[in-house]
Amino acid sequence: MSANLEEEWGQIERGQSLSEKTYVRVKNLILSCDLKPKQDINEFELARRLGISRSPLREALSKLAEESLVEPLGRGMRVTPVTRLNVVELYQFRMVLESFAARNAVGRITWQEIEAAQSDLESTLPSLEAGDPWPFSNLDFQFHDLYVRNCGNSLIIDRLARLRDQLRRIWKHVGISAEDTRLSYREHVEILEAVRRGDRDQLQSAVERHITNVGNRVASTVREAEPGLAAAGS
Fold first, then answer.
1. Rounded to an integer, what distance in angstroms lies between the CA atom of residue 180 and that of residue 190?
2. How far apart are CA 208 and CA 214, in angstroms?
3. CATH number of 3-79
4. Which end of the chain has fewer CB atoms < 10 Å from its terminal CB, N or C?
C-alpha cells in the first residue's frame, strides 16, 4: 500500500471495520467526482487502487446503491448519472422536507444561533464580491441547519443528511457560478430575516422560494435533458 493511501485510510475513523472504511473511502471518491457520474466501476481496478480485496468493496457498493450513488449496469455497477430530471426531483424533495423543517423550527432557534448564522453568512461576502463562490457554498448546509436541526423531527434530519450527499456530488459535477451564488446569498439574507421575526409563513415562503430557485439554477447547468422534465418541473 502506498504512503498516500495509508494516509487516506488513517484519516478514516479508527475502530471501523474494513467494509465500513471502504464504504467511506469509495463514497468520498464519488462525492468528489474522482469517480465520475456514469463511470463504470471496475471492481478489480478499484480494489487494487484501495489495496483491499473485492469482498469489502462489494459490501460498500451495495450500501452505496441503497443511497442511489451507484446503480447496477449489466453484471456490474456504475456511478449514478447526474441528469436534469434527477436534479429537479432532488430539489423538489428537499423543498418538501426543508419547508416543514423551517416552519416547525420557529420558536426553537436561539438568538445565539441566529447571531452565529449571521456572522458566518457575512464572512463569505468578501469572497463572493471577489468572484469566489466556494466559501459561501462550503457553509451552505451549515446555514440551513439553523432551522433543520431545530425542526424536532429526527427522520427529516437524517433524510436531509443523505440527500445532501447527492447534492454535493451534483455541485461538484456541474460547478458553481459566482453570480448564482450571489443570488443565493441574497436569498439566505431573506431566510435569516424571517427567522429573526419568528414569522412561520414568511420563513416557509423564503425557504421554498430559495430552494426552488437554486434547483432551477442547478438544473439549467445540466446538459443532458431527460424526457418528462417539463412535467416534473411544472
1. 16
2. 10
3. 1.10.10.10
4. C
H or E stretch including 77? strand 76-79
Which amino acid is residue 48, in one-letter code?
A: R
Domain boundaries, the chain: 3-79, 84-233
The pLDDT profile of the chain, 234 residues, written as one tens digit per residue, is 444 554 554 544 555 789 899 999 999 999 999 999 999 999 999 999 999 999 999 999 999 999 999 999 988 999 999 999 999 999 999 999 999 999 999 999 999 999 999 999 999 999 999 999 999 999 999 999 999 999 999 999 999 999 999 999 999 998 888 899 999 999 999 999 999 999 999 999 999 999 999 999 999 988 644 444 433 333
Distance of CA 3 to the CA centre of its chain: 30
C-alpha distances out from residue 224 to 1, 83, 90, 174, Å: 39, 6, 16, 11
CATH architecture of 84-233: Up-down Bundle (1.20)
Distance of CA 48 to the CA centre of its chain: 29
- Residues with Cβ within 8 Å of 144's Cβ and at least 6 positions away in sequence, in order, are 98
CA atoms within 13 A on the CB side of 82: 24
Burial (CB < 10 A; 0-12, 13-18, 19+), residue 77, is buried
SS3 assignment, position 18: helix
Which residues have C-beta within 8 Å of that of residue 145, sequence separation ≥ 6?
Answer: none
Dihedral of alpha carbons 36, 39, 42, 45, sign: negative
3-state secondary structure of 72: strand
